[in-house]
Design brief:
The protein is mainly alpha-helical and about 170 residues long. The chain has 5 helices and 3 strands; from the N terminus they run ααβαβαβα. α4 links the parallel β2 and β3. The longest helix is centred in the N-terminal third of the chain and has 17 residues. About 25% of the residues are buried.
């Protein structure tokens, strides 16, 4: 991408496609457009994942009018969660989401592709409305980063939040 205009054109096309592309075999998907806050990851005083607080947070966002919710991502500190915590959190949010208007987007990024695919299968089994992923954080090769796009239904590129423009071939 060479500039802001090209990025916005690409992102606009992607967002339009998101609003109309059903996910194969996933029933009647919710519309994927609007405001999608990233849920925080709540912990108890004994440093355990607080699943009830996570569920209440999902319900709160729906009551506030959010169009969807995303968990876990950077703001959720996904990299510090154990595998079982990630699975349990996704289960709680997906279960709550079945009774909510807001769409549920589950993050499936992981340090390696095999783990990311395991998270993907779990989120699909739970009936997530959409998935979001990052290439493994340690990956630096732009060609390998782009190779991850072949496994998605719809790939969107977003500029980095570090303020730098990353040019991929």
């Amino acid at each position: 991408m060479t500039g802001r205009r090209e990025f916005l054109q690409t992102a606009s096309a992607g967002l339009l496609a998101q609003a109309v592309l059903p996910l194969p075999g996933w029933g009647n998907p919710k519309t994927l457009r609007g405001v999608f806050p990233i849920l925080q990851t709540p912990f108890t005083v004994s440093d355990e994942l607080d699943l009830d607080a996570l569920r209440r947070q999902a319900i709160f966002l729906d009551r506030c009018g959010a169009h969807g919710m995303v968990w876990p991502q950077f703001a959720s500190e996904f990299q510090s969660l154990r595998r079982q915590e990630r699975l349990a959190g996704a289960e709680v949010i997906a279960s709550a989401g079945r009774k909510l208007r807001a769409a549920v987007v589950i993050g499936v990024q992981a340090p390696d592709l095999a783990t990311a695919l395991a998270y993907t299968r779990h989120a699909e089994k739970l009936g997530a409305d959409a998935l979001i992923a990052l290439p493994p954080l340690a990956e630096q090769d732009p060609g390998r980063i782009l190779s991850y796009s072949h496994i998605s239904i719809l790939t969107l590129h977003c500029e980095s939040s570090d303020g730098l423009h990353h040019q991929y071939p």
